[in-house]
Amino acid sequence: MWKKERMKKAYKVLVINPGATSTKIALYEDEKVLLSDNIRHATEDLSAYKEVIEQLPYRLQLILDRLSKGKIAMSSIDAVVGRGGLLKPLQGGTYRVNAKMLQDLKQALRGEHASNLGALLAYHMALPLKKEAYIVDPVSVDELNPLARLSGWPELPRTSLSHVLNSKAVARKVAAAKGKKYEEMQLIVVHLGTGISVSAHQKGQIIDVNNAMEEGPFSIDRTGTLPARALVQLCYSGKYEEKDLLAKMSRSAGLFAYLGTKDLQEVERRIIDGDEEAELVFKSMLYQTAKEIGAMATVLSGQVEAIVFTGGMAHSDLVIQTLRERVSFIAPTVVYAGEMEMEALAFGALRVLRGEEEALVY
Ligand SMILES: Nc1ncnc2c1ncn2[C@@H]1O[C@H](COP(=O)(O)OP(=O)(O)OP(=O)(O)O)[C@@H](O)[C@H]1O
Ligand SMILES: CCCC(=O)O
To answer: ipTM greater than 0.85, yes or no?
Structure first.
C-alpha cells in the first residue's frame, strides 16, 4: 500500500483566473500551492481595450513575466486550467478546451466578460507545452428551475450567468463544516465581487440566481436590473451603438459610473472623509443586494440553512455589517471572504488528470 502511494504521480497544474480588475494565477502540485499571484490591472490599462478579447496578448505577457520571475520550469506543468466564460448553457463539471469553445469565446457569443479570456489564456499557455487546457464550472452553468426562466416575454427567457465556480466551492465548504453534503443543503450564496451573484442552492443545484450580467443589484462596474422602457428609448436615441451600450452595461456602469472608481476600499475611505454621495451609492448597492437575498429566501420557501457571503467585497466589515442588518432575520450568516476559485479550478483539473472524472466535451 505504502509502495503504491509512493509511486503515485504528482501533477502540476497552472491555474489562470481573469477577473474584471485582476488576473489571478497559481501553480498547484496536487493540492499544494507552489505559487500564487494576483496581478492587478489599473483601470487606465484596461480601458485602452474596447473589447475584452483584445486584452489577450496583454494579460498573456503579464502571466509569462510573473512565471519567469518565479523561476517556474514550464516543462514540469501537466495541464493548464482557466476560468470558464460566457459559453452556451451547460451542466457543471470540467471541460477540455476545444476549437468550438475558443470560437464562441472570441465571438463573445453571450456577451463581453473577463472570464471569456480564461480558456483562451489556458489554451495559449498549454499549446507550446503540448498539454491539455481545461475550464471548470463556467459562469454559464445553468440549473435554473423552469419556474425561474419565464420573464413574461416568450422571446426573452431568463438565463443563468453567475459566479458558479466560487459559489459552489464555498457552498461545499459550508456543508462540510456542518458535517453535511452540499446536495443536502438549502443555502443562499452571495458572491460580492466586481459583479454580484445571489444564488439559491437546493439539492446541489443553483435553482435560481440573478443573472450577474444584467439583473439584480448593481455592482462595482455593472448595472443591475434596468428600467426597461427607458432602456428601449435609450437604444433608439441614436446616442449609442449596440456594442458600446453592452460594454457600458457590463464594464463601466454600477458604482464606477457614479463614483469613478472600482476600488471599494477607496470608496470606504471617501465615506470616512464625509463624502455623502459615496455613502449613498455604497448603501444603495448593498440595499439592492439585501433585497435580492430576500427574493432568494422566497425561492427556498424560507427554508434557508445559511446565508453565505463571499467574494472580494466580503473582506469589508462595513459591507458585511450593512448586509447583516437587513438579512440576519432570514437565517444565520457565514463569511468566506475572497474566493476559492483557484482551488476549485485546480481540483477540477486534477480530478481529470487522475482519471477520477471524464473531461466533458463542449
Ligand atoms: N479588503 C477589502 N475591503 C474592501 N473591499 C475590498 C477588499 N478587497 C477587495 N475589495 C473590493 O472587492 C471588489 C471586487 O474585487 P475582486 O478582486 O474580488 O474582483 P474580481 O475578482 O475582479 O471580480 P469577480 O469576483 O466579480 O470576478 C473590488 O471593488 C475591491 O476593491
Ligand atoms: C457573469 C457572472 C460572473 C461575473 O459576474 O463576474
So the answer is: yes
